[in-house]
Automatic annotation (TrEMBL):
This is UDP-glycosyltransferase 85A8. It comes from the Eukaryota. Keywords: Transferase. SUPFAM superfamilies: UDP-Glycosyltransferase/glycogen phosphorylase (SSF53756). GO terms for molecular function: quercetin 3-O-glucosyltransferase activity; quercetin 7-O-glucosyltransferase activity. Transmembrane segments: none annotated. It comes from Glycine soja (Wild soybean). Belongs to the UDP-glycosyltransferase family.
Amino acid sequence: MTSIESYLTNGYLNTKLDLIPGMENFRLKDLPDSIRTTNPNSFMVEFSFEVADNIHRASAIVLNTSDELESGVFSALSTMLPFVYRIGPFLSFLKSKSTEPLGIFSEGVCAGVPMLCWPFFADQPTSCRYIWSEWGIGIEIDTNVKREEVEKLVNELMMMVRKGKGMRLKAMELKNKAEEDTRPGGRSYINLDRVINEVLLKIK
């Protein structure tokens, strides 16, 4: 194993970060694998820098999220960018998609279902971190997990122990708040109306 590959197993990925506003105490392993690549010339790294360089030119930043899901990140972005709107989660949109990431989100957070997370690539590590640590509606499976441990974790989620019951209650709370936000008069509904009137109708 090379020195570059060894960081995957030597505990380095558990290093906590304090560099990302709104995501304090996140670990390296919680970031998308495209960001923690050892190749500085990778497409996703260059693309991320390009987006960051041009984001100030945007008329508005629209996030498909809600207060309960990512309040820390939203607060941090609001201090850097003038026009940031939370108008989600779009339940009907998510449920209409067949892709796995959107399906998991829809069936999990928006349906009040606790989750067992075993992240491998893309944004799965970040989603996993929010699910088990920030929202408290799931459990993270370790990379080197054994079959007996998986069975134990599944039993927890099936309410065979108190922890599983607590997760199910938290998941239902998030589901109810998400539905409340997207109803007429809800916070996300109002923010969508603001985007239309304050941004889209003013663009010539």
